[in-house]
Structure formats: structure tokens, C-alpha cells
Design goal:
The chain is α+β, with helices and mostly antiparallel strands. Helix content is 34%, strand content 27%. The chain has a 7-stranded mixed beta sheet. A 4-stranded parallel beta sheet has the order 10-2-1-14, covered by helices on one side. Strands 5-9-6 form a 3-stranded antiparallel beta sheet, with no helix packed on it. A hairpin with a 2-residue loop joins strand 11 and strand 12. Helix 5 packs antiparallel against helix 6.
Amino acid sequence: MRQPDLELAGRAAATGRHAVVLGAGVAGLAAADRLLRAGWRVTIVERSERCGGQHQSFTIGPYTFDAGSIFYEEDAEIFTLGEDLRALCPAVRRIQRRIAPGGQVLHYPFEPREMLYGQSLVDTARNLGDLAVARLATRRDGSLAAIIRQRLGDRLVSATGLDAYITRFHHLPPAEIDEVFFFHRMAFVERMTRLPRLVRAGLRAALPRRGGLRPRPLLRIRPLEGYDVLFGRIAARLLKGGAAIRFGESVEAIGRAGEGFTVTTSAGTVAADAVISTIPLPVLYRILFATDPAIEALDMTTVFVSATRLDERTGNVLFNFHGDGLWKRATIYSRLYPEAATDRAFFSVETSLPPGATHDPERTFADFSRHVTALGLTDGLRLEGAVRLSSSYPLYRIGALAATE
């Protein structure tokens, strides 16, 4: 159990040491909280005018949209930053679906039956044989292509649409992406493709179901009003505990000063005994070395959309594993927040941008509208707004991590 906020204020600056935390997202705020509790004086530097980092909400008319994922586990780090935060966040069941290569709406990331069985006994034999050969013969070479081939085999990688999704995400083929992406960013798929899980999934698919599928645990989502409700409370608590937050300041340089550091921002210079960075690695690399980093980062265009109709089969999170369309994921708020005062479905649609690409919401919306309308999933689409998030995803080209060591 966390100590009361008054004790947090009493511990602040007890050591006489000063830390500068770069970034006021969840990681930066958590770092500031722990430093305050350890008796440090803390200054948070944030280039935007609000806390939350990539977690941002935008209210447009009767709708509240987001950039980034809005789901939290019950033990999420953000809930340690205030005793009443979890109660502000509704509990929901995440219903994830994907558009498969054939245009069907199926479970995300795979359905057990499609993984191990086909339309005929011949298809089933081929799928199982391909999977067995892949497990025995494929050798990991550090690429994302090799690890997903080893886990699923070539037939299932293509049949499920996983290869199309990965290529859409990175704008590069899986053979050019480091396998670290599989373990860091595809943890759910990684767990699903472990051999014991595959065996259990196959048995469940083959045997008659008794009592239906076991429901997944509930998750928490940000308040209906948006993220500012959460992050405003966290910021107020840290300020009360002795932290300083410098909004609207971009970090320009970090240097040594004796045994400590100096952090130069667009508003001046601050001295510190320690600097903790939670900003994207490519951004930090440019600050430190004034050169392009080995690890690139992908920006993301998120368009905010409403519709007169959205197919019920799409759940509340929909992934694009289809061969067409630029977009990769849609989060459907009208199903997560049914109390919202509107009779239209509303959702955000994410599209990762290749390095150097321009932010073009109209083109992104037009491509999405063409795609899902052709599949018969929606009618009456309307573009409500858009945002570009910079450095949303690290681009793990093979060898990039080794080059930074």
C-alpha cells in the first residue's frame, strides 16, 4: 500500500539531490514518484502542454477520441500513482477481432481451428505437416521472419494474414525486422504460439465445447471524459509532493558538469545530479550525439471517424490482417463507452507512417473508407479529426540494437 500523499511531501528533497526526468508520460511520472519517495528533489521536463506522453485524448463535438492504446491491466503502473485512479477507470471486456485475408472478421490474433485445421482433411494434414516441419527445421537468424515461421510455418503465417499485418506495421518485410519486435511488441501473439498453448488450442478446437469459452479478465480503460482526468490528478499529486513540472520545453542538450549534469531546454538550463530519460530513444540519441540514430522511429497518423453503422462482428478493437488497406488498428469507443451521448458509432483508426512520410489525414481516411466499405463493414463514414504522433514505434531493423550498444 502506498503511503499517504502528505508523507510523500515530507520526504521530498530529504537527500538534497536533484533529478531531472525527461518526459511526463506514465514512465516519467512513475519515475518522479519513486524519486520523491526516495528523498530527491525532482524536475520533470515535458515538451507538450500536458502530461500523458503518447496517451492523449481529443474531444470533438459529442465524441472523445484517443491516440494510443487505452487499456490497462488491474496492476498497471499508472494505478500506483494515486489511490483513487483505478476507480475512475471503467472495467470492460476487450473484444479483439481481425479482418482476415479472405475478408472475414475473425478472432485476434488467430482462431484455434484455423491454426491447426483446414477446409478439408488434406488442408488439415498440410497445415499440421507444415507446422511440424517449421518447428523442427527452421533456425532463428535474428529476423522476425524466422521466428514467426518457426512458430507457425509458412502456410499459417500467410493464411492468418500475420505477414501482411507486420509488413503494414513496419513498411518493411518481416525478413528485415529484428526478432526483438516479436517478444517486445507482439507478446500476446508470442504467448499464443508457444507449443503447449498451440496443443491446448488444437484440442479445444477438435473437442465439443462444454460451457463455452472461458471469459477473459476485465481490463480498465481511461475515464469517459478523457485522459486529462487521470493525468491531471497525478500531476497535482506530484506537485503537492514537491516536484516541479516544466511544460512546453524541448530538451536541446545534455552535458556533464563535474559529477552531475546540465540539461539545456528551449527555456534555459537546469543542473542535476541525475537525468532519467523516458523520451523515445531516437530523440534522445539525437540530443546526445547530434546525429541520426541507428534505431529509427515510426510516426503514426490517427484519424477520428464516426459512422451511421458499424458491423457488430468487429468487436471493440479491430486489426487489419487483410491484404488491402493502409490502416492497422481501429479502437471502437462507442462500444467501450455506450453511455456516450451520440447515436453514431465512433472510433479511432491508426496508420503507421514510413520514415519521411507526410501526415495526410484525408488520404488516410479515404483509404480506410474505401477498404471497409468494400468489405461491407460500415456505412455513413465521416472524418471528425486527426492527429500525428511522432516517434510512436521504434523501427527495429536487423542490427540496429547492436549498433547502439
